[in-house]
Amino acid sequence: MRHVFAVRIGPVGFRVGSDWRAPVAQLESLYRDYPAPADGIPDFTVRLHAARPWRRVIRPAVTIGGDYVIPDAAPLPLRLGLLAAEMGMNLQMALAQRRYLLLHASAVERDGRALVMTGLSGAGKSTLAALLMARGWRLMGDEFALLDPETGLVHAFPRLISLKNESVAVVRAAMPGGRFGPALPDTPKGDIRHLVPDAQAIARMAEPARPAVILFPAFGHRRDMRAVPPSETFVRLTQASTNYTALGEPGFETLTRLVTEVPARAIDYPDAESALALVEAAWEAAA
Amino acid sequence: MSAHLLIAALRDPACVTALDASGWNALIAAARAERLIGTLAERCAGLRLPDAAERILADARFSAREGRRTALWEAEATRRALAPLGVPVILLKGTAYAAAGLAAGRGRAIGDCDILVPKARIGEVERALLAAGWEWVKPDPYDDAYYRRWMHELPPLIHRDRDAMIDVHHTILPLTARVTPDAEALIADSEVLDGGLRVLGGSDMICHAAAHLFADGDLAGGLRNLWDIHCLIGDLGTDGLAARAERHGLREPVLRAVRLSHHLYGTDVPDGWRHLRPADWLFRRRLSSRDGWGRATNRLLEEGFYMRSHLLRMPPGMLARHLWTKWRKGHRPVA
Prior knowledge:
The complex is a heterodimer. Chain A is of the alpha+beta class.
């Protein structure tokens, strides 16, 4: 492919090939502080290519390809090339990662212990993770938490944080010095802007952490917190995992261990301040 | 060309120890694109490799073993659903290789559960599967009618809880194809496994793999299907194969499979079967067109083989009617 970018995020190496320069230039800039894939051999390949040769220049449309793809995924306009690359990396993980049990979750760490937050899209995982990072927590990731079946530890996967719609302004206000990607208005998921994880998140991305609390945040409700029993947590997490079924028995054992060892709480919140207070309260309670 | 790297690595796994990073990237991309990564991983087990490559191959081995376990469980679920009927149930392709413990099953990606049952009993089989939780996939009445009238299998069914697809065959080529394999002979000479499920006899298994590769499909994923043939010949030999191929009208695809398998993978076959024919070179190119990013590199050849597969499957007049009906419904070949 004409333009190539390779990067390691946590334990996972990617290479992205593109028919166009622009998406690769944006990736190079935003991931400039990240290492290269181990041994120069990335785990997954992503391809951003034109569906037909002339679509490189005329109404350029980015088709997401790679080692593993979902057929019939609609192409994106070239202005969303960065988003296409990020979606491509997510897809490879979601479809093919077998070394870790993947939880669609954000994770942050303090004192060697991890706080894992999961919930439906729009629950505020990414926003909360970014705000906690702004307060000194180490960001482990805002998209996937990687659970190691052998050790039960969470591995970091600190990709660009994908902020959507109103949360962009909230996080920009909280992180005036933060590095942000280009504004991507009118994507299939609304307005998106990426935030580069801070220096600590990148420098310490090879350090796993012992999970300490699981939170199920829900935005737009009266402030509330309740304990979630292991049985319910188990079911919710099977739904939040893209490879639970594919992992078979190790997946079942990893998840069983997680929900029996780690307390879980559901928190409802009307605004960021309440959310942060509830997170701290849940953290203290579990300590 | 990364497909050549993949072929070389399958033939002689030790050659991967000489690869640099870009060689590994090309090999892995081709192996994934051809769905041979699990096979490659099993072949390379025990070699001294770069850590990153070893991790990728270890994951592929894990996936293939988990896939094999799921496939065998699916076969057992099918056996249980059909046991009351007393029908011979013959496993085909990947599930059969895994169940019979053949080399072709090692690391192989297994997709749908394919079974062969006697045509006269297919209605009962369908009802028993529906009663046991399988459901229709194809909602379109034209597709459904087409399958029932012309195909060698029922429209695919999927299990509502396990999300697993089953293809119920009553023979191994579409009824519209010019060749009509002897389905009764396939069933009569099948062999029973522990547990009661059956697999095709050795020569028939090779005939089916060749029919699947050269007499029906467009050669997408052809390297994997040809690897099956290489392994099957290694395990089962070629005694009686020619006569059996003749009986099924599959002499041409079987011999082509043998020649190409010998040529690409070094399969040990009788001397007279080794020399490539002029047309084989086209097949060989179609099989090995992949670049270092796992992309097919010869679109023209690909589309040519796509059309060939349709012409093999049905006479031209019928194909025209079929394509017209599909086109009106909004279906576009090769998006």
